[in-house]
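This section describes the prediction task in plain terms. A model, or a person checking by hand, is given the sequence of a single protein chain and must write out its three-dimensional structure as a string of tokens. No templates, partner chains or ligands are provided. The sample shown here is typical of the held-out split.
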Amino acid sequence: MDGSNLYKHQLLEYAQDLARAYSQIRQSQAEFLAALVSLLEMKAPVVRGHARRVAFWSLRLNDALGKPLDPGALQAAALVHDVGKLGLPDRLIQSWVAHNDDDQRLVQMHPDLGASLLEHVSAFRDWIPWVRHHHERWDGTGYPQGLVRGEIPLGARIISLANIFDYRIHGYGSDPAHTVSGTVAWIEKQSGGAFDPDLVQAFTSLPIEALWVNRLWIEEDK
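The expected answer:
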């Protein structure tokens, strides 16, 4: 092998080594996020599958918008949007709902707690704001910072809508479960209030009933 070909061969091997290392890092990150979700579901069995469903609906909404966000980043953020609840008292994790004003103040800490946990991994920093702000509202009455309209990161707006959709469909604590059609109608009424009107329009354009009928695979253990 002459010098030129040897050089090219060495560069190719180096590139392949880097690709393998990067793949292993990405796999490790995914396993870390999956472990966080599993721990949360162990503490709160009532919400088993919630994280995967929120990720599923977030990705479908991102598709409907023309994929403005990286699907991998959005899926990661949606999966761990509630991991901050691991920092709450066990009674709140297990019930998943606040029963009084003191409980509500604690629950409202979970987006910041989750973001603070995830900030220890530098690779997550681009999408951590989506976790921190997934309880903001379009009209500025959400938390933790009361951001309004376009101040709210798009990823957080997407996750917020997907999260509430799944929450209302299943119901937690004393909150009843609602039908798909009833939930969609409620979301439409919240356009310009809780949710970005453009996202509501994109979400309701999806074949939601058909997607819901075929949803069970996302609840299966991996």
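For orientation: The chain is about 60% helix and 0% strand.
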